[in-house]
């Protein structure tokens, strides 16, 4: 018996090297050599100057530097994503456990009464008897066709995909916070502009009223001056309301109630960092959503091997050993028993179920491959979009600044002529309106350039890289953690 068992084990060890999953290669996507929208306007920079880690520090804003880390510790959406990653790691560890022997211990103490009319009951059999047992069970499924290894590989790949999803969510929240913050600061600058403008309009109105009282100006001039002032005040009220909404959005991002959160108004110059786009091929390594899509394809490839292995025999070794007795004196040698041997099963007819599962596995692989290619194409588009926007906004800002200078000169001339009585107040109003519109457009371009910089950094993957993915061992260990700090520490490892 022992020689036959050794032979079975040797054959199983030989066959366990089989793997029915197709050879895996990431789906091919055409990658351009350069970005189309980079153009000569993009400053040259070495690729190692790309944003890493706390990328928002490149904007040199102390308030933003203080707010961004709060996402890690307080944002509820990120905490939920961490929990999903923990679930994926647990499932990966569960699949990994299938490669190891399963051992259990059981015991039972029962009192029984059998029927007097039980068929084949002998006269010597008692009506009342005890049936007590304590036993150890052990089982080990030999992975003949790679099913268990493919299940573990799929679980590991899905855990890595979940880690990339976590990084993608983190980057998205960081970029959203930076975008909202710069939008808020743009509203602060607009509010300052409108406040100064309203003050200037008030002085112009006072002057017009004085001229009207001296019968130099008409009541129409006074009405026009009043209209300008009230319109500026109305715009200021609108900007104040929009700023409050943006402040509430930032409060939610950093996990604080909107009613108890505030950011003091401030107008300060911002640094527009140069963000080198490097070469397009690095985008496949820099974008966590691309990594997540690729890992999902790898998991689907392993699941094909699981589905194909279901057509073949499964072999497991089982052991049962312990003690049985009708009394409580179990642990004695005469009461011992054991059973050991292989267990083989082979599906013969399943009504097409296995064929359907195999077809579904191939379909999931094709779906994941399509999603991967779509993610890569969308990533290239986002980079090109932000590069084009930065290019256009850079040129537009230069033209608008020249427009502001011209509009300011026109207003100065109009006011001088009006003071001298050489023109009507309508020309002053026209010049005032043109100047305010040009100044607001210049502020809008500056804010949009800041948010486009944030968009480009996000499109390039922020400070993330595929080397940040957990290793296969880390992805299947419950103690592993892709975050060094943050919501993961708030309960996922308890």
UniProtKB/TrEMBL annotation:
GO terms for cellular component: plasma membrane. SUPFAM superfamilies: Outer membrane efflux proteins (OEP). Transmembrane segments: none annotated. Belongs to the outer membrane factor (OMF) (TC 1.B.17) family. This is Outer membrane efflux lipoprotein. It is a lipid-anchor. PROSITE patterns: PROKAR_LIPOPROTEIN (PS51257). Its main location: membrane.
